[in-house]
Amino acid sequence: MTVERASSNSAGFNDGDSRVMPAHVGIIMDGNGRWASRHGLPRSVGHERGVEALRRTVKAAQKLDLRYLTVYSFSTENWRRPVSEVTALFSLLKTFVNRDLDRLKNEGVRIRVFGTKEGLPDDVSALLDRAVRETADNTKFNLGIAFNYGGREEISRAARAVALELKAGRIGEEEIDEQLLASKLDTSGFPDPDLIIRTGEERRLSNFLVWQGAYSELVFMDVLWPEFGEDSLHSALETFASRERRFGGLKSGAA
Ligand code: IPE
Ligand code: IPE
Ligand code: MG
Prior knowledge:
Layout: E1 8-10, E2 18-20, E3 24-28, H1 32-38, H2 43-63, E4 68-75, H3 83-106, E5 109-114, H4 122-134, E6 141-149, H5 151-167, H6 178-183, E7 195-198, E8 217-220, H7 230-242
Parallel strand pairs: 3-4, 3-7, 4-6, 5-6, 7-8
Antiparallel strand pairs: 1-2
The protein binds 3-methylbut-3-enyl trihydrogen diphosphate (2 copies) and magnesium ion (MG).
């Protein structure tokens, strides 16, 4: 896939000065459990507060010139957690969609879901489908929910889809290139993320957008996800604006 460059426009997040705004921001929403244990609360409360942070963040992103936001909600590796926690995460997702879908729909938000349906309870899967279906005509803001998502799983599925087309004789092997593979990924239609933010003190991607993030700017923040909000998003955007992206080329003006 060709590298999508961040659009240059007036972000308005800092006294309206002109800045480079990312078109697409990905967020690894981490640190719910740590937040809870530091407050002497059960992990589930951390996840509940995490949903509130998600609401705040989506609202803050809608106010900005950002067109695409993808949030990492449940990874293919998160199945390793106790069943009770996995179940609690599923029911929080259901609550979020049930409570917020109508509002998001009216605000022009288009929801896309990235990840596999495999293993998901039918009601969770049906609700995600509904969110995607009911917002499919919206164009104002794009919200990607990475749920039961793993970058490697996504790439494997894309490779399988390509293999089927090859086997059926619809494409020749010389047609298999980055663009074709990217078109089979769940995120097809979304530009590559310009910026990936990870909260919660770790410095890793944990299988998030591994293909799409090849040239993303990474911003790691120590803030735990339940404490994230508009100010933290603005601060990540300030950091992004200060970075020089070269995409393998030379520093501007160095040639
Ligand atoms: C992020 O918070 C939420 C999910 C991964 C679903 P964690 O639950 O990973 O919180 P920590 O990392 O244990 O603090
Ligand atoms: C990444 O967080 C997954 C999500 C935020 C959904 P994890 O807490 O699962 O990541 P690791 O285990 O620290 O790598
Ligand atoms: Mg974690």
